[in-house]
Amino acid sequence: xxxxxxxxxxxxxxxxxxxxxxxxxxxxxxxxxxxxxxxxxxxxxxxxxxxxxxxxxxxxxxxxxxxxxxxxxxxxxxxxxxxxxxxxxxxxxxxxxxxxxxxxxxxxxxxxxxxxxxxxxxxxxxxxxxxxxxxxxxxxxxxxxxxxxxxxxxxxxxxxxxxxxxxxxxxxxxxxxxxxxxxxxxxxxxxxxxxxxxxxxxxxxxxxxxxxxxxxxxxxxxxxxxxxxxxxxxxxxxxxxxxxxxxxxxxx
Length: 252
Prior knowledge:
This protein is α+β, with helices and mostly antiparallel strands. The chain is built from seven helices and eleven strands. Pfam families: PP2C_2.
């Protein structure tokens, strides 16, 4: 398994409120996390950094995850711990009032991956069956599409496209979507903030992920393309490739 993490401020924003990373537990299993913060007075970067640091610390103290049930329970329990942490901090510190963050996280073992998400950061898979978004956006526009009030095409340019209905830290309790998928050799996971998914089409993602470039070059090319298409938001991505043990490559 190889992984690469990359983040970029974009062309417009003064600060990068995204955070992310790929971390290992006591048995070398990976946890990939992308968090896209929101809130005034730079509170967004506080929210995403706190959420990330909480998950990193807990994961690095964790022993081997053996089953999908264990992985899903770990994500549920520890993301909720992060929600409490952020919510209580926002109540104590006036500058952080109302802060929150999206989270998409994947526990990756050599047999399966369990994926959790809150908000509109996404996880995609590229495999022999094609390219598929594994997570559902918790956003106003996605809800309008799901209920048939607007088309998917209308959603691309909707004026309220950035309104998120669910985030970590904004409420005392939070609902988390969690699912597990089976991995096979040469499958690829892409985790990203909406700074990528709002600017780079799925066709462009597929073209780059299937290219002959190194993983670092693929990540850099995706970010470069998002910036070329406007770069109005911070851009964060993680690429995870599942390779036969005999293969080698770059990445984390």
